[in-house]
Design brief:
The longest helix has 16 residues, at 190-205. The chain is globular. Helix 8 links the parallel strand 7 (178-182) and strand 8 (209-213). The two termini are 17 Å apart. With 257 residues, the chain is an alpha/beta fold. Strands 6-7-8-3-9-10 form a 6-stranded mixed sheet, with helices on both faces. A 4-stranded antiparallel sheet has the order 2-1-4-5, covered by helices on one side. The protein has helices at 5-14, 65-72, 97-102, 120-126, 137-143, 145-149, 160-172, 190-205, 217-223, 241-246, 248-254, and strands at residues 27-36, 39-49, 54-58, 79-87, 90-91, 105-108, 178-182, 209-213, 226-231, 234-240. It binds adenosine-5'-triphosphate and magnesium ion.
């Protein structure tokens, strides 16, 4: 049976496993609404995550996934008009993107944004200019041997998969409390997807709290603990990743898989 928005509140209360002893989740998004100019896009999204959990944020093209991630990262567009966001007891809804980054929100956007003209290593070092720092270069290269081999190569000349590795590595080079991965497998050949998947698995083992947006829903759901499906800027399902994998009706209606 589908769980729709109007029953969502009940479901959040019913599956209330994400609250810590203090009664607060590690990460919590409460009824956020955001706009691109006059366009009302994120229409009341709520999420809860425990420390170390992975959430798959799914939905059709144009459902509002990227907009939700951008709102969480406190990028100016879309503008958050209403709602609250908390990470580890700190409010984010009243912060700018650079402050959210300081508090540990790291967004790896769909287009990866590798800085042109800079080598792999320079891209990594640049993200460590601002405090607080995350992983040292040595540790990054241990986890990403392909980047170590290519440390002097210009970042934009890397293959798509390598650029995705660099984008993730750059996020880890800063202190990360919540990693936001927007379509990390997009445009990559299956064999490269497997490599990125193994990196995401390592991230999971390290206990980094993560939200992953993916068109490849099955791949994301296999890694995720929880799943939220959005449609037209609203939550239409919230539950465990397993429930989505097991619910064909839900997958047919919202995910086309
Ligand atoms: N800068 C913008 N200005 C106006 N509308 C926008 C802007 N960016 C996105 N939108 C609109 O917001 C809606 C949600 O877009 P969003 O990019 O969040 O979807 P998505 O779920 O990430 O889709 P996809 O799976 O295709 O990446 C879409 O209707 C889109 O056209
Ligand atoms: Mg998107």
């Amino acid at each position: 049976m589908l769980t729709r928005t109007d029953t969502n509140e009940l479901q959040f209360q019913g599956t209330d496993v994400s609250m810590s002893e203090t009664g607060q989740s590690f990460f919590s998004v409460r009824d956020i609404h955001s706009y691109y100019g006059e366009s009302y896009i994120v229409q009341g999204i709520s999420l809860e995550l425990n420390e170390g959990e992975i959430l798959a944020l799914l939905g059709r093209n144009g459902a509002g996934k990227t907009s939700t991630m951008r709102t969480i990262a406190r990028v100016d567009d879309p503008a958050l008009q209403r709602g609250e966001i908390y990470l580890n007891g700190e409010s984010l809804h009243d912060k700018k993107a650079w402050q959210a980054a300081q508090l540990g929100i790291q967004l790896v956007p769909e287009d990866r944004r590798i800085i042109g003209g800079l080598t792999v290593e320079e891209n990594l070092v640049l993200s460590q200019v601002a405090e607080p720092k995350g992983w040292e270069l040595e540790r990054i290269y241990e986890h990403f041997p392909r980047l170590a081999e290519r440390r002097t190569q210009i970042g934009t000349t890397l293959s798509g998969g390598e650029q995705q590795m660099l984008a993730v590595a750059r996020a880890l080079a800063r202190e990360v409390k919540l990693l936001l991965l927007d379509e990390p497998y997009e445009g990559l050949a299956p064999v490269i997807v497997q490599e990125i998947e193994s990196i995401v698995r390592q991230i999971k083992e390290l206990g980094i709290t993560t939200i992953i947006v993916e068109q490849n829903a099955v791949a994301a759901l296999k890694l995720a603990d929880k799943a939220v499906i959005v449609d037209m800027g609203e939550v239409v399902f919230s539950g465990s990743a397993r429930e989505v994998l097991d619910n064909e009706e839900l997958r047919n209606e919202y995910l086309a898989i």
